[in-house]
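Reopening this one. Same input as before:
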Amino acid sequence: MSRPITTTRWQQLTQDVTTEMRAWRLAHPKTTLRAIEVALDARLNQMRARMIEDRALAGSAADWAATPAAAVPRCPACDHPLEERGANSRTLQTHGGQARTMERTYGVCPACAAGQTPSMRNWVCCPASSPPGCTKRWCA
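Same output, byte for byte:
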């Protein structure tokens, strides 16, 4: 589940956006500033979502096997260490409207039975800022 972040990977994402925009512009020689903006935003939003996903999956909270016992996430309700209960997939939508499905370690509190994906416990739902048609948006 844990994914190392490499500068090369992010540089390739940036290069891909640049290459795609160059090709798009050649295919649309007479276009409006708004059309250019929409085309660029679509590509940047994809890149942004991938970078957010990489960052979220890079931490040790993504994979408890790499987490020392003293650093295991704790229950926010009773502060008891959580017990790992496998993986949990969750689909989140970025501010750019890109959906990303991430697999994270899921934990359950043996004291109060609360369950959660610890690395996402501080995320809050921001429905007011969601795009039309979307009922949830998750913000770190």
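So the earlier flakiness isn't reproducible anymore. For the record, The radius of gyration is 19 Å.
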